[in-house]
Amino acid sequence: MTGTAPIILADLAARGVPFALLARDGATVEVLTGEVVDVELLADIPLTDAAGSPREVLALVPFRQVVERGFACHDDDAPLRCLVVGERHSLPLSEALAQLPTEPVALEDAGFDIDDEAYADIVRRVIADEIGRGEGANFVIRRDYVAQVGGDPLTAGLTWFRALLEHERGAYWTFLVSTPDHLAVGASPEAHVSAQGGVVTMNPISGTFRHPAGGATAETLTEFLSSTKETEELFMVVDEELKMMSAVCSDGGRITGPHLKEMSRLTHTEYMLRGTSTMDPRDILRETMFAPTVTGSPMQNACTVIARHEQSPRGYYSGVAALFTPRADGGHDLDAPILIRTAYVVDGRLRVPVGATLVRHSDPYGEVGETHGKAAGVLGAIGAIPRDVVARTVDEDAPAPAPRPLAEDPAIAELLSSRNARLAAFWLNPQGEPGRGPLAGRRALVVDAEDRFTTMLAHQLRHLGFDVTIAHWSEASPAAVAAADLVVSGPGPGDPRDADSARIARLREIVAERVDAGAPLLAVCLSHQVLADRLGLELAPLASPHQGLQKTVDVFGTPASIGFYNTFTARVSPGTTRVGATEVSADARTGDVYALRGPAYASVQGHLESILSRDGLTTLERLVTHALSPVEA
């Protein structure tokens, strides 16, 4: 219920009751108090009471919940902690500030748990052993800034929360959550997922520009925005979150942006994704665990890579704070920021986890610098280290002028908007009703080889008219494979030559079943390589992985702009256009194969479903139409 008596923050601290402070609108601080309940699964989050009446719940979801999706993690038993709200109050910002402590907090024995050289070595290994061997496009590896907190931890947390309210800008949520034996305080820039009245929104943010001393300028920001690495990093996380949107939204999701997320010491680039869904918000949360901006892609393999290279469990880092708010119709809206830019205190010990996104051309020391910048962004905002710029005032009698957003600079705005010229119009524009396309009336089975690009492929196929089912490779039975009008054998991580992989062995069986039966087949990326191997083509690693690379290539006489995420390739002698009954589209110089087509089958190395594939949907229709064409006797 909503409290009517004045709320005194010091009383909450003195009584030791569980509570949360949330600043979401820039004008007020929400104060939530209630009972703490720890549950095992997202489905167990208690959104109703014993009588079935809806109630408000704030849940701290740890990274270990990825086990619900069958993904790997270092399991630290961090609880899925729910604050079941009994009362909520709202304080004007000025009143909240007047009640919060201001004394500096002493930190002792401060520093990173992994030194710079050791972290740089981890970066090198991930690039060589993971990205270089086809395990994925990008991975986020964290390290922790740690220190001993002098004095009472809750007083420290309230002091830091005040500092964030005063000195941080651009945060999505500024928050403090105090529960038994655990304190979290932060200013998250990024909404992971929200569901408001059936409209689902995701907010991929990537690319980190650390402001120079004195603040950012249009000139320094222009250099950052012109970086190929930063641009491709953002495109890759948009692709990854569109996979999630396509899994939970009937309309697949549409992107808008890019925008700038300007904070006190850091600036990021971001897109907004929106779609509609009728799913339970807990199910939406499960299907979107967790953001690729703090894990990597493809998501399942990213979790495995994190478990291999991070030296300790993540706790709540990269999880979410999920606020479930009852609606008048008995359902719940969801608002869930990512738990980043957050300080945790347990047993008097401060921990600030930070990570860098590693891609094919990451510089190890550049990524070391990024973790320093992100840690400084938190520590500077809470006043643990000196700030670069004078903080804005909250004195209503003498307000300081807010800095002009750099996004309003015409050159910056033009540079941002120009990025969309590279992207697929299908994901930028309204898509129309699925199921009414030129290939309506047919059933397609999409085989998921552990890369959820399959959800985006399925969405495109529905817009071509197909009735689509997605099946995990381990559950794609011979009967289901035989019954489909079209089988799309999908992309996935790994080496197509791996004789010990059960997943690749099953892809080989599926490809063989369809080719031998003369039944329509489309093979994508990893499955394209499997088909090429069956046809007797050479498979080889690329000299430099194509992870998030956009290329214009010839696809059987038609130039097509396509996004590539591959470390391996099929290869023919330069100039080869046919191998037996199979037509070949390959690079004229290297012989790298971009597409194949033969009797009732076609394949493509690139990802036609990617936002990087400007000609993706038309190329998909061409290849599928070929596969469905009657085979000449």
UniProtKB/TrEMBL annotation:
GO terms for molecular function: anthranilate synthase activity. It comes from Microbacterium oleivorans. The keyword Lyase applies. This is anthranilate synthase. Transmembrane segments: none annotated. CDD domains: GATase1_Anthranilate_Synthase. Residues 116-374 form the Chorismate-utilising enzyme C-terminal domain. The keyword Protein biosynthesis does not apply. One of its GO terms (biological process) is L-tryptophan biosynthetic process. InterPro entries: ADC_synthase, Anth_synth_I-like, Chorismate_C, Class_I_gatase-like, GATASE, TrpG/PapA_dom. Keywords: Glutamine amidotransferase, Lyase. It holds the Pfam family GATase. It catalyses: chorismate + L-glutamine = anthranilate + pyruvate + L-glutamate + H(+). Its EC number is 4.1.3.27. It comes from the Bacteria. Residues 445-623 form the Glutamine amidotransferase domain.
